[in-house]
Specification:
Chains: A mainly alpha (319), B alpha/beta (496), C mainly alpha (309)
Oligomer: heterotrimer
Strand order of the largest sheet of chain C: 1-2
Largest sheet of chain B: 5 strands, mixed
Strand content of chain B: 15-25%
Structural class of chain C: mainly alpha
Strand order of the largest sheet of chain B: 2-1-3-15-6
Largest interface: A-C, 117 and 108 residues
Order of helices and strands of chain C: HHEHEHHHHHHHHHHHH
């Protein structure tokens, strides 16, 4: 039904009336309906199955795993992996805390910065509009690379081992600014802004009272993009975080993974592989961590999806 | 550095050493002179040394280091902050940290983590020659000289190797349960050929056992030392002319490959050996008779404990000291260290002082471990918050013994190290810069041919000439010529 | 001068709004840009930090570039980046439009909604997580795929070292992750099509297939074209997470999984070839820049509102 409303917004005929009519003859034959259902259904299952599979592995008994591998129906179930995680202390809990904090603060900060910047450069009466547009766009085309960026963040700004090192590097994105600028110009009529000006409202007032309410779907889309960006980021933690108490979820999973690779590469050196191996959780526990790291998204995402679809036509065209 | 200054430094070093010896302890933070020997100057404030090392970060690192700092402040006037970086991140993170000039003094380096030779050449590490002379007397006396000699890059030391097992020795390992069960005689085994009767027996009597376990990294042993690990250019161990040869072209390798193919056809080797990443599944199930591995003293005990069934071994080669074996675990001083002298003093102490070394390794006595005898200790439950990889933290032979270690553990290590024979090209490090595009091409050829040839999966009569041809097409000969040139220069410079 | 300040004052509110963002761009985008110069240097560490290292490293002009292009690497990473992106664009377009049409034609709306929810899931997962998922299928000794091969009496495959399968694996994984999302984009567009068009077609006796061919697809063409063009503009940039996390950094797979982004990263982080890595990065920026400009120009000519700038 979302789509129908979308259509209405885009100036199409009223869907309510339409639906009644289309129900009657706008239909495919029952055979094709079955085939289409099969295709869409199978693909949907294929999209969800890996997650379910990993859940199953995480509940498998470790000893069974060694002999029969990852099975869809293992011969022995076990809660051992989860027990291990919860008994191994607060590591996972902390990682959750860090990720949630970074995601919330980060999304808020970046949404405010992006929304304001985009608004300013969307205003035709802004004298430096062109300059600041190009100033943002140029950053999409070149980047200075990892080490100079590291130096700015870690040394110049002194953000090493600080939660801001996980927040600030992702705060702005020229791409989102451009999306939002376009959104403002298509969804907020110029006349509305002008009438606001005539009523004597300042730019901030116009932004808050006129632009924001009318651009909510666009803002929501950008907000959700950046929520996802923060939740799924592991790279900044790799660079800037040494303190084990500040490691976010994805980065924790990533570390376990890269340690496994390290052991494989150094398998000839028994000193290294023995020492490193002892510090790693077992297969089922790793899968359990994957499950726990994914769970919040699984629960949150039907909600995400609703907003995405609303903001989609504008946002997605450019994604 | 000028000649005059150097001599002056040496004089100062001798004096310092004398004073130290007279005062009977490790000195008291009274020497702030830099590496170039710019003079005395005293300071009461201890300097802070930042130490980057590999391993999963431990909870109690900071509290242990506080304890360590108390000790080192008293001994050498320096406190220590340790930063641990997880196994898989170490290489990458150190690359960024060093390139961006993060403050650091001591850096763990090895052939497998933050590559030693490469980074020494790029200038990441301080050159230690004069510092070792100045502050490393005891260290030099303690660790096996072959370590320092073998870890030279272009004639200079850039890191202090950890004193541990020195040579590499290949052994045949046996699954003792099967050996006993089928009455297999392992006494006369040494060469690859000598395995045949054993493999034959087990193949006939226990068809579900993999007689000869190996993964795709397996390479038959030949008495050559490789210039670059796993590329077919090598120097014969008893060489006199220091000629680099294509190892695939040597009679030893040809014979070994023919034997391997014979074994493969007879079903002694698993059909998928050339693509198997690891034999750990076989090891868990115990369904293997023998394989080849690198040994160290009491390795049989370690293997038996970790597999849960008895494993025995007999030598398959001599014990050879190679670059690879020497560069397994080292500590360098960062080129941007502000206190290279203190860092060197610390490394000296770490490698010679059992109290410090064990504190760094096992934590605080009474909290993380308790001593049960003069040279023995036992972990306490708290040790789970300070579980460090011993191999990466300096001189292993100072470590207290664990409850189930034999009394003569370190003596056996020393004996093992004495038995090691230097590879002729020990401490020669090939600089591949001028041939790196050829090197990449050769690596690609290697990926295609190597494993299937080495595991005997393909017939060497047919594929070996092809492989040699491809290697040469990719530029192996050019690389070998460049390596030979460098080796000749090195040989002349080192009077070999 | 006076007018300049007057202008500044007149625009103070809007200037204040761009200020945080502008400061951010200065620190996080423009300041690090100076590091690009290392592409023209033979990088050597200097004790005074990165800038001192750059300043004191030897100027080697185009050597890093010459070197990069004399190895087979430059060819491999360019080829991989372009071909993979091409495959993603073409197959992604075909499958997501197909899926959107299927979803729009389903009689039961509730089911259609449910399928969408399922398909959307992968889009929300990080590549780290997807890497674990893929591993549960492809692991040599434990993976599901090798078990299935076993049921048919086939030998297990060492997936992570057999380069020949990976082009397919990468394409499948990428499509798996992205189709749910992009098909919903197209679905929104389909549902936005004026229904009276279909009614008129129906009255003219057009069957469902003719409607799809003659109404749905033509009306989707503009959005398809724009999305494709924009993707073409970014064809020189690969999805780092996909190419780094999913193949588990397996060396034997580099020939088919190394793209410009992973090459730059490894050059910096693993092999320490800072100069070469910067050269490859600059190469990507310059060619990528040209492609973005061209595609943006074309999009602009088609539909001004859809252009990026």
């Amino acid at each position: 039904m979302q789509m129908a409303r979308k259509a209405e917004k885009a100036g199409q005929p009223k869907p309510e009336r339409l639906k009644k009519k289309t129900r009657d003859f706008h239909r495919i034959s029952p055979l094709w309906n079955v085939i289409f259902n099969l295709i869409a259904g199978l693909f949907a299952i294929a999209c969800v199955f890996p997650f379910i599979f990993v859940v199953i592995i995480s509940f498998t008994d470790e000893s069974v795993l060694a002999s029969e591998g990852y099975r869809i129906i293992p011969s022995k179930w076990s809660l051992e992996a989860y027990r291990y995680i919860f008994e191994s202390g607060d590591t996972l809990l902390r990682a959750y805390g860090v990720t949630i904090a970074v995601t919330l603060i980060g999304t808020a900060v970046s949404l405010v910065m992006i929304a304001l910047y985009a608004y300013a450069i969307s205003r035709k009466n802004f004298r430096y509009r062109r300059f600041f547009s190009i100033f943002a766009i140029l950053t999409m085309l070149f980047n200075g690379g990892m080490i100079p960026t590291y130096m700015v963040v870690a040394q110049l700004l002194g953000l090493k081992n600080s939660i801001w090192a996980l927040i600030l590097p992702l705060a702005m994105n020229a791409f989102y600014i451009m999306i939002l600028r376009t959104f403002y110009s298509t969804s907020v009529p110029d006349a509305l802004v002008e009438s606001g000006k005539i009523d004597g409202a300042g730019e901030f007032r116009i932004f808050l009272k006129i632009i924001v309410p009318l651009s909510l779907p666009g803002l929501a889309t950008i907000g959700l993009f950046s929520t996802l960006g923060y939740w799924n980021d592991w790279f900044n933690a790799l660079l800037y975080i040494d303190n084990p108490n500040l490691v976010p979820l994805q980065s924790m999973l990533m570390r376990i993974e890269s340690s496994m690779q390290f052991i494989q590469q150094n398998s000839a050196n028994s000193n290294i592989s023995m020492a490193a191996l002892s510090s790693l959780p077992q297969d089922t526990a790793r899968m359990a961590m994957v499950v726990l790291a994914t769970l919040p998204i699984i629960f949150a995402y039907p909600f995400f999806q609703r907003y995405f679809v609303q903001g989609l036509t504008v946002g997605a065209v450019k994604e | 550095m000028q000649k005059g200054k150097k001599r002056w430094t040496a004089a100062l070093a001798t004096m310092t050493a004398l004073t130290l010896a007279l005062s009977g302890c490790g000195g008291g933070g009274n020497n702030q002179s830099s590496a170039s020997g710019s003079g005395g100057g005293t300071s009461d404030k201890p300097v802070e040394l930042i130490w980057y090392t590999i391993g999963t970060p431990q909870k109690d690192v900071d509290s242990v280091m506080a304890e360590v700092s108390k000790y080192t402040t008293e001994k050498i006037g320096a406190s220590v902050t340790m930063k641990m970086i997880d196994w898989g991140d170490y290489q990458q993170k150190m690359q960024v940290l060093v390139a961006s000039g993060e403050p650091m003094d001591i850096i763990f380096t090895s052939s497998g983590g933050f590559d030693y030779v490469q980074n020494a050449r790029k200038g990441a590490f301080a050159e230690l020659d004069s510092l070792i002379d100045q502050y490393g007397k005891e260290l030099k006396d303690t660790i096996n000289p072959a370590f320092l000699e073998g870890s030279k890059v272009d004639g200079h030391n850039y890191a202090i190797p950890a004193n541990k097992e020195l040579p590499q020795q290949e052994v045949w390992r046996f699954n003792q349960n099967l050996v006993d069960q089928y009455g297999i005689d392992t006494k006369n085994v040494r060469s690859l050929d000598s395995l045949e009767p054993l493999l034959k027996t087990i193949k006939e009597k226990a068809p579900d056992v993999t007689p000869f376990a190996m993964d795709k990294n397996y390479v038959p042993y030949v008495p050559y030392d490789y210039v670059i690990q796993n590329l077919p250019m090598a120097v014969k161990l008893d060489t006199t002319d220091y000629k680099i040869v294509n190892v695939l072209d040597t009679p030893e390798m040809k014979e070994a490959l023919a034997t391997m193919h014979k074994y493969y056809k007879a079903g002694y080797v698993a059909p998928e050996a050339a693509t198997t990443g690891s034999t750990s599944d076989l090891m868990t199930s115990g369904k293997w008779l023998l394989d080849r591995a690198q040994t160290q003293p009491f390795a049989d005990n370690v293997w038996s404990t970790s597999y849960g069934y008895p494993v025995t071994s007999t030598p398959a080669s001599d014990a050879i000291i190679t670059n690879n074996s020497v560069q397994g675990s080292m500590m360098a001083i960062s080129a941007n260290s502000e206190h290279p002298d203190k860092a060197m003093q610390f490394l000296n102490l770490l490698n010679t002082d059992p109290v410090l070394r064990n504190m760094v390794d096992s934590g605080i006595e009474g909290t993380h471990y308790k001593k049960t005898a003069d040279n023995r200790m036992e972990n306490l439950p708290e040790s789970k918050n300070y579980d460090m990889p011993s191999y990466s933290l300096g001189n292993n032979m100072l470590l207290y013994l664990n409850p189930n270690d034999p009394e003569n553990k370190w003596d056996e290590f020393k004996k093992f190290n004495e038995s090691g024979v230097d590879s002729p090209i020990l401490s020669f490090n090939f600089d591949p810069k001028s041939v790196s595009s050829e090197l990449a091409a050769v690596q690609n050829v290697k990926e295609q041919f190597w494993s299937s040839l080495m595991t005997g999966t393909v017939d060497p009569d047919q594929y070996l000439p092809q492989a040699i041809q491809k290697f040469n097409d990719a530029g192996l000969e050019k690389i070998m010529a460049e390596a030979q040139k460098q080796l000749d220069e090195w040989k002349a410079a080192n009077g070999k | 001068m006076g007018t300049f300040f007057k202008n500044l004052y007149r625009n103070k509110a809007l200037l204040f709004m761009v200020l945080p963002g502008a400061i951010w761009f200065f620190f996080f985008s423009y300041l690090p840009l100076a590091g690009t110069i290392v592409a023209f240097k033979q990088y050597r560490f200097n004790r005074d930090g990165f800038w001192a290292s750059i300043a004191r490293s030897e100027w080697v002009g185009w050597d890093n570039f010459k070197f990069l292009f004399s190895t087979s690497d430059a060819y491999t990473i360019t080829r991989n980046t372009l071909l993979y992106n091409l495959a993603f664009i073409v197959l992604g377009l075909i499958f997501s439009v197909l899926m959107a049409i299927i979803l729009s034609e389903l009689v039961n709306r509730k089911l259609s909604k449910l399928y969408q929810t399922g398909m959307f899931l992968p889009y929300f997962l990080s590549w780290v997580i997807v890497g674990y998922f893929v591993f549960s299928f492809l692991s040599m000794d434990r993976g599901l795929l090798n078990q299935i091969l076993g049921w048919f009496g086939m030998d297990p495959i060492q997936w992570y070292s057999e380069a020949k399968y990976w082009p397919y694996i990468m394409v499948v994984v990428n499509l798996w992750k992205s189709i749910g999302y992009s098909s919903v984009v197209y679905l929104a567009a389909i549902l936005g099509i004026d229904k009276s068009l279909y009614e008129a077609a129906m009255i003219d006796g057009a069957n469902k297939w003719q409607q799809i061919r003659n109404i749905t697809i033509p009306l989707l063409t503009p959005i398809m074209t724009i999305m494709t063009l924009l993707a073409v503009g970014k064809i020189f940039y690969a999805d780092f997470g996909l190419f780094y996390q999913v193949p588990r950094d397996s060396g034997t797979l580099y020939a088919v999984t190394n793209v410009i982004d992973t090459y730059v990263y490894r050059g910096l982080m693993t092999t320490g070839e800072i100069g070469m890595s910067a050269a490859a990065g600059l190469y990507q920026s310059v060619v990528g820049f040209a492609l973005v400009m061209i595609s943006n120009y074309v999009v602009r000519r088609m539909d001004k509102d859809s252009a990026l700038f």
